[in-house]
Specification:
Blueprint lengths: L2 E2 L1 H7 L11 E6 L3 E8 L18 H19 L2 H4 L2 E13 L7 E13 L2 E10 L2 E14 L2
Length: 148
């Protein structure tokens, strides 16, 4: 399967609305890379307060979207028993650059790649685009932990 829709992403991640930010994952290369879609809408939960007259997707939510896309990529590539009853937690953001504001009513594409893994710790990099214009990029690490 080279594409996951929102219902399939829900089966992999613990996130739920309104915090489930990614709508689709495609061009999946097992445990290596993928592209995620975030449909940034005028009625997205953050628009009302950030900023009402000039809405912008907060940078922290772009980083969260990167993390969700990486978690979905990883869970999709692992045997279900490996991630069942587990959570993926963000450990650190080494670099994050916000180059252009992400304005609602756009499709934000996140091109992510796993750089390396060592046991339960994974390192990723990603770039975010709207209409082929780079909006942000980041390098981050995450770990897989037991739910309890």
């Amino acid at each position: 399967m080279n594409k996951l829709d929102k219902s399939q992403i829900i089966s992999l991640l613990p996130h739920r609305e309104p915090m489930l930010l990614i709508d689709e994952l495609y061009d999946i290369k097992k445990l290596s890379s993928a592209t995620a879609v975030v449909n940034v809408k005028k009625d997205s939960f953050f628009v009302q307060g950030h900023f009402p007259d000039n809405p912008v997707m907060p940078g922290v939510l772009i980083v969260e979207s990167f993390g969700q896309a990486a978690a979905a990529l990883t869970a999709h590539g692992l045997d279900r028993s490996t991630y069942e009853n587990k959570l993926v937690f963000l450990m650190g953001v080494e670099k994050a650059r916000f180059r252009n504001p992400v304005i609602p009513d756009c499709k934000l594409l996140l091109k992510i790649a796993a750089i390396r893994s060592h046991g339960r710790v994974w390192k990723y990099k990603g770039e975010a685009f709207v209409d082929e214009k780079k909006m942000a990029d980041a390098v981050w690490s995450a770990t897989i932990v037991d739910k309890k």
